């Protein structure tokens, strides 16, 4: 059962930004499907491009709390993607960035990410600035969102295996980048022969360069795959993936 997520439509008023990316060899699996980790990088990049286009500080720290993706038609190798991004909702210290993806070969994806604003000095969540609200408030409207985590803990009988980290997984904030967190999800989907139709990753806590990570995974009778990245038995990130119905 796919969890209900409100992918609000592209707004008629307020700011939107559209960027373009081509699906290249390094973005696809061996069947030519755009991987979730590559899609997450495209989402991250177009968000950064939007920030630059506004003239905001593109180095201001934000961390992803949750990303939800609905793959209506998987984009394929060679497609040119048009990614339209906008503010989809607001909280006191976080905001939702909605992105609608359309490919010139028919690919269709909807995505929503909850990003938390972080104080550069303290590392704690920071209130959204007036500059940010002026840019994205109109498109977000009065829609309020939360940043709570909803995924369950791993069951006792779930599969477990080490997930070695690489230096390339980490970003300037000193933890595994949100896009790299999708890579173990893709690896587990490939092992289990599952093609994603709906996927969500929740980020509970940062994974550092020296952490020893265990990948925990489980699949239910309906084909839904769940994964957890744990350090010393504590969940740092989790994912749920539904196959096509």
TrEMBL record:
GO terms (BP aspect): fatty acid biosynthetic process
Q: Which domain of life is it from?
A: Bacteria
Q: Which SUPFAM superfamilies match?
A: Thioesterase/thiol ester dehydrase-isomerase
Gene Ontology molecular function: thiolester hydrolase activity
Residues in domain Acyl-ACP thioesterase N-terminal hotdog? 16-136
Q: What is this protein called?
A: Thioesterase
List the source organism: Iamia majanohamensis
